[in-house]
Amino acid sequence: MNKIKKKIIILQLMALIIGGYGCEMKKEKVKQEPRLNEWQKEFLAEQGLPTEYSELNITQQLSVDAIYEMIMYLEEKYGIGFEYTGYVRPQILEKEYMTAIPEGGNAKTDTVTVTREDDGTFTDDYPNIAVRPYYEQMVTDYIKDYFNSDKIKVFSTVTKTTIKDLSNISEETIRGNVIGNSVIFISNEVCTENEIESFASIFVKQMQKNNLISYTQIMLLYNPNIGELNVNNYSDYFSKKNIKIRLSCHVKSDGSTTITDNKLYD
Known about the structure:
single chain; 266 residues; alpha+beta; 4-stranded antiparallel β-sheet; 6 helices; 39% helix; elongated; disordered N terminus
């Protein structure tokens, strides 16, 4: 082999060695680059966890990446801010999900769940949260108008809605597009037990007329101070010492209705 060929081969080998070494250096450099953005660092600090990616264990790394991904999914989809409240890693019989509330929301009534489906896509129930106050107000207005009294409290949840345009929620768009539950408290100053039983029959017909699948509990209170009830304490009133009568009104998906007198026990 002549000197020129030897020189070319040596140069080629050196290039391969240096090139390969350079690739390894590049890979190592990528591994060492920070993996956390400012949102994740702030979030980890709030949770009392390290803000350096390398200091997190593998579960924490996967979790903080997933939480950020889910929060961004919500904010980009709905154009509002959300506050993280909880996260569950995928389990054998449970999908991965995160909970959050819209900025200014209440954890009792406004908790949104984002779920990662088997194909990797996200689903969420924010439309239920967005529709809930309108549904609750619709039920409240109907009952107050019926009895011509403000001594009434309604607490509602929406379990499903087919309303697509969340910027246009009204009684008209709610009709036929919502499945909801309500707990209704009525002061004993407003009506008697017989009158509330009559009202329950009229109420289920109204919900049926509006094609609203619903489960509603109507309760006549002994205590006339209806103003003390709120979303945080109303379940404390589910006892005989507070309630004269509790009626369960069910409008089913097939349009049929039932009214049940639920006996109360201390």
